[in-house]
TrEMBL record, chain A:
GO terms for cellular component: plasma membrane. It is a multi-pass membrane protein. It is found in: Cell membrane. Keywords: Cell membrane, Membrane, Transmembrane, Transmembrane helix, Transport. Belongs to the AzlC family. PANTHER family: INNER MEMBRANE PROTEIN YGAZ. The chain crosses the membrane at residues 14-31, 126-147, 159-177, 184-213. GO terms for biological process: L-valine transmembrane transport. This is Branched-chain amino acid ABC transporter permease.
TrEMBL record, chain B:
It comes from Streptomyces fumanus. The chain crosses the membrane at residues 6-25, 37-55, 67-93. InterPro entries: Brnchd-chn_aa_trnsp_AzlD (IPR008407). The lineage of its organism: Bacteria, Bacillati, Actinomycetota, Actinomycetes, Kitasatosporales. It comes from the Bacteria. This is Branched-chain amino acid transporter AzlD. It holds the Pfam family AzlD. Keywords: Membrane, Transmembrane, Transmembrane helix.
Length: 229, 102
């Protein structure tokens, strides 16, 4: 293990992400109650589901009049990516089995991005815990405030709050684009994710886009194998 | 009632996949190819989600003020701005573009 960066620097990174994304729970609270869910339903989503993209997808599908099973399926498909994050995190966090059911609820885009950016196991654990705790507390608090304030704020799109979600994703993605392979995977995923959106059921295009990762790895392995002869 | 059914299904489903990822034996990831794949999957998913939430409304593709907001976020990232500033840039520029009729 390398010496790594000081704990304080890890905590600062984690708080930065946790606070910024945590505050965007406000946008979710507003969107959810604006879409017709009650205050209790909106808060239950943030407490129990706690993965932003799935929550937004569910609320959008219900607001559009979708039946509960289709709506839940779309949200579930979006949440499947957290299993892949968990695969990566379990290796780096090396948690005792009894702690895993507790840690599981915090396995999301943001905690994974912060944890993976740390060079040591200690850093990974601090990054995951501080991001998870900050985000869970703030996301639920701002969801409640957003739901309460939905009527006061009126049209959330007029405030540009619908751009917060993608900006968060972009900020998480940027540091991962370290090499040609990463950029190729990202580019292919964008083409698949956007191109398939009009033709596949909600939630599926993002899963197909995930196939960009094995596709690029396979193509490179294939080429390297041929080049070696 | 329908909304509660959807919420319950989503909550159980999303928690289960989160836990499943953590419970898979560590040995399953020791192969270099699997490790490489696990590292690249978030790249693909985040890229696709960013593009979808910028250029789509539901299942309809469109170019609107959010694209300007995301461009501002990209510039902020290139300038190594802190996370909160990146998100704020996207929100402010999107709202500003809309106010100007974009």
């Amino acid at each position: 293990m390398t010496a790594g960066k000081p704990d304080a620097a890890v905590v600062r990174d984690a708080l930065g992400v946790g606070i910024a994304v945590g505050l965007s729970g406000f946008a979710f609270g507003v969107t959810s109650t604006g879409g017709g869910l009650t205050l209790a339903q909106t808060c239950a989503l943030s407490l129990l589901v706690f993965t932003g993209a799935s929550q937004f997808a569910l609320v959008g599908a219900l607001a559009a009049g979708g039946n509960p099973f289709t709506a839940a399926a779309g949200a579930f498909f979006l949440g499947v990516r957290n299993a892949f994050y968990g695969l990566r995190l379990s290796q780096l966090l090396a948690l005792p089995r009894v702690l895993r059911p507790l840690a599981a609820q915090w396995v999301i885009d943001e905690t994974t991005a912060v944890a993976l950016a740390q060079p040591t196991r200690r850093g990974v654990r601090i990054g995951f815990t501080v991001t998870g705790l900050t985000l869970y507390v703030l996301w639920n608090l701002t969801t409640l405030l957003g739901a309460l304030g939905a009527e006061a704020i009126g049209d959330t799109d007029a405030w540009g709050l619908d751009a917060a979600g993608p900006a968060v994703f972009l900020a998480l993605l940027a540091p991962m684009l370290t090499g040609a392979v990463e950029r190729l995977v990202a580019g292919l995923a964008v083409v698949l994710g956007v191109g398939l959106l009009p033709v596949l059921p909600a939630g599926l295009p993002v899963l197909v886009a995930a196939l960009a990762a094995p596709a690029v790895l396979w193509a490179r392995g294939h080429r390297a194998g041929k080049g070696g002869r | 009632m329908n909304a509660w059914i959807a919420i319950a299904l989503t909550a159980v489903g999303c928690y289960t996949v989160k836990l499943a990822g953590l419970m898979v034996p560590a040995g399953a990831l020791e192969r270099p190819l699997v490790r490489r794949l696990a590292a690249l999957l978030p790249v693909a998913l985040l890229a696709a989600l960013t593009a979808q939430q910028t250029f789509a409304d539901g299942r309809t593709l469109m170019l609107d003020a959010r694209a300007a907001g995301l461009a501002a976020a990209a510039v902020a990232l290139l300038l190594r701005a802190p996370f909160l500033l990146v998100v704020a840039a996207a929100v402010v520029v999107t709202a500003g573009t809309r106010a100007l009729g974009g």
